[in-house]
Design brief:
With 106 residues, the protein is α/β, with parallel strands linked by helices. It has four helices and four strands. Helix 2 links the parallel strand 2 and strand 3.
C-alpha cells in the first residue's frame, strides 16, 4: 500500500494488530503516516498504549455486541417476536491523545 500510494498521510486499520503492522511498515519505508486502529485493546501491545505513547493518532473500541446479540436472539427464539429492530448500535469510544493515558491507567 505504501509503495502503491507514496503520498499516503493516514492509514486506517480494521484492528489493532493491523495498525501495529502498518506502523512497522511505515517506519521501515521511512514514511510519516498517521495510524488509526480499531479495537482499543488494553495492555502493552494494545491500541490504547500505542496512542498513549504517540505511535498512533487514534484507535476506537470495537465492542462485540454480545449483550445486544443475546437480547435479540432471546426476542426471536424465546419471546417469538415477529420482528426485531433491523439496526443495533453498540457504543464505541474514540481513543485519542487527549484520553489515552487516562484510559491506559497511566
Amino acid at each position: 500500500m505504501l509503495q502503491a500510494h507514496p503520498d499516503i498521510k493516514v492509514l486506517y486499520a480494521s484492528n489493532d494488530m493491523m495498525a501495529a503492522g502498518a506502523l512497522l511498515a511505515a517506519k521501515g519505508a521511512g514514511k510519516d503516516v498517521k495510524i488509526i486502529g480499531t479495537d482499543g485493546l488494553p495492555g502493552p501491545a494494545g491500541g490504547i498504549e500505542a496512542v498513549a505513547k504517540g505511535d498512533w493518532a487514534a484507535t476506537f473500541t470495537y465492542p462485540t455486541g454480545a449483550k445486544e446479540a443475546i437480547e435479540m436472539s432471546k426476542k426471536i427464539l424465546v419471546d417469538c417476536a415477529s420482528s426485531v429492530e433491523p439496526t443495533v448500535t453498540v457504543d464505541t469510544t474514540a481513543i485519542t491523545a487527549e484520553n489515552a493515558k487516562q484510559l491506559s491507567g497511566k
